[in-house]
Amino acid sequence: MKLLLLAALLLATVPTFAQKAKPTENLVQYAKPLVGTARMGHTYPGATVPFGMVQLSPDTDTLSYEQNGKYNPRVYEYCAGYQYADKTIVGFSHTHFSGTGHSDLGDFLLMPTTGPLQLNPGTADQPERGFRSRFSHQNEVAEPAYYRVKLDDHNIVAELTASNRVGMHQYTFPQSEQAHIILDLTAGIYNYPDKNVWTFVRVENDTLVTGYRQTHGWARTRTEYFAMSFSKPFVSYGSRNLSKKQVYRGFWGRFDQTKNFPELAGEQLRLFFDFKTTAGEKVKVKMALSGVSTEGALRNMRAEVPGWDFEAVKRAGQALWQQELSKVVVESPKRVDKENFYTAMYHAALSPTTYMDVDGQYRGLDQNIHKAEGFTNYTSFSLWDTYRALHPLYNLLQPKRNADMVQSMLAHFDQSTMHMLPIWSHYANENWCMIGYHSVPVIVDAVLKGVVPADQAQRALDACVTTAHQQRYDGIGLYEQLGYVPEDKSGASVSKTLEYAYDDWCIAQLARKLGKTDIEAEFSKRAQNWQNVYDARINFMRPRLADGSFRPRFDVLSTHDQGFIEGNAWNYSLYVPQDPAALIAKMGGEKKFLPHLDSLFTMHLPDKFFAETEDITRDGIIGNYVHGNEPAHHVAYLYNWTSQPYQTQARVRMILPKMYRPTPDGLGGNDDCGQMSAWYIFSALGFYPVAPGSPEYALGSPAVYGATINLENGNAFRITVKNQSDRNVYVKEARLNGQKLTRPFLQYADVVKGGELVFTMAGKP
Amino acid sequence: MKLLLLAALLLATVPTFAQKAKPTENLVQYAKPLVGTARMGHTYPGATVPFGMVQLSPDTDTLSYEQNGKYNPRVYEYCAGYQYADKTIVGFSHTHFSGTGHSDLGDFLLMPTTGPLQLNPGTADQPERGFRSRFSHQNEVAEPAYYRVKLDDHNIVAELTASNRVGMHQYTFPQSEQAHIILDLTAGIYNYPDKNVWTFVRVENDTLVTGYRQTHGWARTRTEYFAMSFSKPFVSYGSRNLSKKQVYRGFWGRFDQTKNFPELAGEQLRLFFDFKTTAGEKVKVKMALSGVSTEGALRNMRAEVPGWDFEAVKRAGQALWQQELSKVVVESPKRVDKENFYTAMYHAALSPTTYMDVDGQYRGLDQNIHKAEGFTNYTSFSLWDTYRALHPLYNLLQPKRNADMVQSMLAHFDQSTMHMLPIWSHYANENWCMIGYHSVPVIVDAVLKGVVPADQAQRALDACVTTAHQQRYDGIGLYEQLGYVPEDKSGASVSKTLEYAYDDWCIAQLARKLGKTDIEAEFSKRAQNWQNVYDARINFMRPRLADGSFRPRFDVLSTHDQGFIEGNAWNYSLYVPQDPAALIAKMGGEKKFLPHLDSLFTMHLPDKFFAETEDITRDGIIGNYVHGNEPAHHVAYLYNWTSQPYQTQARVRMILPKMYRPTPDGLGGNDDCGQMSAWYIFSALGFYPVAPGSPEYALGSPAVYGATINLENGNAFRITVKNQSDRNVYVKEARLNGQKLTRPFLQYADVVKGGELVFTMAGKP
């Protein structure tokens, strides 16, 4: 009863929208958390709610970053802790990035076991030597907010669900005099040498344990707090400290700290809790998180999951997912389409994640505790990826959340000693991952689209301008001086120059809107800097040196040390999203540009180039078009700036089924916090935001048979697709509210005021 | 102007008392912070205010706990970071225990230098190889709240002062193009291997730096935060991370983190700040501390020392000391008497230390942030030492503070997973140092004397009883079962039995007061347990085994493995403070007891026994009476329970000048957070609290020529000494308010209501 009330409250905090076209269908059934868990998708199959703080998921391995003193390349496979091909599960941890190309997290690994206590995890080959267990996909169920698996070695069925800040476990034990639940605080994803800085545990009573885990690594100084409650008192407990770094023992000898001692601290702690169980007995565990304190974690637990009704928590979580997924109701006769679409919708609503306690407190970049006034604070902004389509998607489907994300970025800016907006915001840390200052397009796009309150516009502009003037950051000083980043001073210089130029264009747009003509002029000029790295002799973007010359050594196919990052010259040279027409002109006009673009999709890429890119599979490449990484995500839409938009339509319809399948190995590359999925959602609906910061989308070719976008403002935007089929990939005609569109573009403003877009499809251009 | 206002505010927060006998004399001149800095006093000479959070003091060495993988015994000399015999100063750190026999702290070592930057400290033999400097005691001044020294190698005069939570440095530089201020976060006192857990620094701007240092060791999980402000912008800054445990560098290569990079973290950081100085230029630094956060530290700085007037901060600090010292105004024709007395008063007002920010927030045992409602939270309770005379002294001289200390202990109890009052409360940690549960006598004494509000009495009793029932703690389970702690199960068993029995007697007194007859009966019975370790065959307390037998192997002179801690059987067997008369009876009555007690003071102790005790000097022993440790502190007063109280008088007057001299080597042992000094104060005034929890003091022989105790309640208690001289050590007569005392005892109640005690002295008993 209490829990139902809670679920209602949770629902109430979600952005409301008039449920006009209220779906009768259960959409949760189509979202498949296992998609992307094989090979390079880097997704996790466990339980979470939309944008939740808790991602409670099985880890099939948690490899050490180093093996025998050397970097272990296989660690890369375990960014999300789970690989579908694995045969064993080590345990269930509570935090996971979704789809990243680097990782961290994996906090507070729990594992239920039976039999003699084993405190080491064992190995994948010999799980019986430790607490891990074999499992089979036959005994595995993964749904939004729910995961179940049978742990064969222990004869335990483990079920997981979650609220925003609380992970809930339900373990069905056999009869056992020796049942245990392990809490492994040494476990973590991407374990650097000595990644644990410190752990701290208090056994408050025989059902409640609190503590924290402090790590360094990708996030330099990260502390995650927990409060863990058992549904049944443990009969005994204990720990091992695996580190040489021990607490002071001069006066501690009087206590046996390994058994029933309630106040533990150390670098490498593993704990166990002992139970006696009857056959079929369910022992439940609630693990509440907080970035603030154990007190905060306990408060989160009491607020979100005060009781022990596992099914109710699961129902509440799936209700949140139904609400989230039903923001777009698509039609298709094929289940695979719905599975692809709602799996994409699911992956596009996993991160950024809530990083704030129920009372509004959160940890800031300065490691102080701040209060979020009037917004929800989020973390895990993988902005180099997500500025492209994910945040633009949020402007459409959940402007309220995106506005809060912008507030989170501005708070980060306020707390930054570098006076910069986030590059990769990571649990009260800046990890400086990837390039550019892509908070800028996210913020500018949100402000210009009216998603961010107008009274925040000047503050937003100030933060963008200050960030773009941070001369000590990644070549900006030279960029300002030379008009490009010189490769001999700062690697990946072409990528940086191109992306800075685009970000600068965004700043100019916002400055224009606010009438700041000097800023507009300055950044409009900077937006032209892409021209400075264009080598007209070869028609490619090319690294330039500080002396002004282009670097002689140059390979347009390689992604390695050619002035680019996660892309080669072929893909990156097309990156002028702020002005494709100018790029086309620069490249010699349509006559030269079109065959060039065609060959990107059709050329043969020699094998050696595949090996260079670690975060995509071979499937993630079509010809030389790399969809598994982001720099070319807009490229299929560039035909819209030529006389052959139909080619965009064909390319998009080819990419969609090739790159997205509702199977564990169905993603062609890292999902990258939802960017890959956001590309799917837009493209399947028939349009794409080529240049966030611009008011328009480029039209493509819808893959669905119809869709209704239920907007937060209460309006609905209807997409009707006539004569749709797998072969009819060409748009014969598109009518907006009855008016035929003369250009292959759609205005954001037209979508959000509601209306209807009717595509009429054809089998020929 | 602002600062003067602040000083007034600070004064206003100190317990007020009517300044009846307002002293015209400057008492601060008599307090000598250098006393005890040679040999085993373990005091520090630096700047602090009464009970201040900051103890800003020079460290002459900060030895590592280990040398070549072995314990370095010399580390023990550096409990307070300073040894008078040393020739060099490493720097000035901000936290120091006073007089402890173990240590920690030494946070945030600052050192001003000139010349080429050196980031290692150098060695005592070759200071020129590092940043440390030679110095001379000729160029050194140490006063309460003020310290000055010339750093010869750098030609810099360093001056230090402090408010409660802010240390202030004033460095007078020579002309230099290469002036530096080093902030060494790797430095610390009693540096265990890898004692640093983590350090974190933000260079907020060119005058403000914030951060923290997190350590493990004596305190398992200790984090101290700072905010540091310079009076002059530095021109550049940088750091070295001396640990192999580095932050993630994948995306960090783009920054040179060693120079002008503002957001640092790591295990072993040393920072430097560069200046250009003119001849005689003063660069000032304010270092504010907090146990809560860097935000808290900054708030503390802004509240306590908003400006840059070094002299005003010093004046305010010394005004606090004058107020503190003038609580007892003594008379003596000899300066040495006043120096001894006010140095003792000074040392008795250093700890417990404030552990709370200006806004009342403090870190609790659970590492959560708590708010102290209506009290000041204190830490560093070295209770095994200080329950004896220091807290009883506070009941007399500053009941308000002692009430707050009791509140701090009760808050600790509330936060303890062991459900115990503090044993050794240490910056949001329990370090379990030493034995007994001596929060109990502190609390009981304060409650029974009306110092703690009556509405807290029941809460206090509950905490005491719960603590005394914690069977898992240090033999209590067996103690409850057998009536003594068996040596074969728990070492130092006799000491524990004796001290538990005394603590239990205290609980019984409080229970009686509250009419809890069952508790009174239970603990009165436990209070008799001292009898269970008394071996009547040899007339000594003696370790007993679990089978009931006394341990055959036994040496009454050794302190090593004889069932005692910091004392031998000779000293400890006299420890029944709750009932000396019963002890004397047990030992065969006065006829046997008196010669026994005499021989304690006169016997010859073979050399080998001196070597056993590391924390006292040979001077700390008279015969076999060990004054340098605490267990015998009441012993000289035991003659009062015989027909020869005059012997108490003679012994006390012998001990006083022998154990206390106003010179660096003037303390015969560790000052132990003020317990040794509190013994001096009481004894010099002519009485001593043999059994805290009892309403009376035992009279001794006053060493002063007269004294006025200015009580917080506005009353004054006058001690007049007639016919005083070094030879007239015997009390011929004592009259309280004109009434001749017939017993050698004085009631606490008679003192606090004000009045006059007149001693008439004589040269013979």
Automatic annotation (TrEMBL), chains A, B:
Which SUPFAM superfamilies does this one have? Six-hairpin glycosidases
Q: Which positions carry the signal peptide feature in this UniProt record?
A: 1-18
Q: Give all residue intervals belonging to the Glycosyl hydrolase family 92 N-terminal domain.
A: 31-290
Q: Which Pfam families match?
A: Glyco_hydro_92, Glyco_hydro_92N
Q: Which UniProt keywords apply?
A: Calcium, Hydrolase, Signal
Cofactor(s) recorded for this entry are: Ca(2+)
Q: Where is the Glycosyl hydrolase family domain?
A: 297-762
Check the record and name the InterPro entries matching this protein: 6-hairpin_glycosidase_sf, GH-type_carb-bd, GH92_a_mannosidase_put, GH92_N, Glyco_hydro_92, PNGase
Statement: the UniProt record of this protein carries the keyword Hydrolase = yes
GO MF terms, alphabetically ordered: hydrolase activity
Give the quaternary structure: Monomer.
Protein name according to UniProt: Glycoside hydrolase family 92 protein
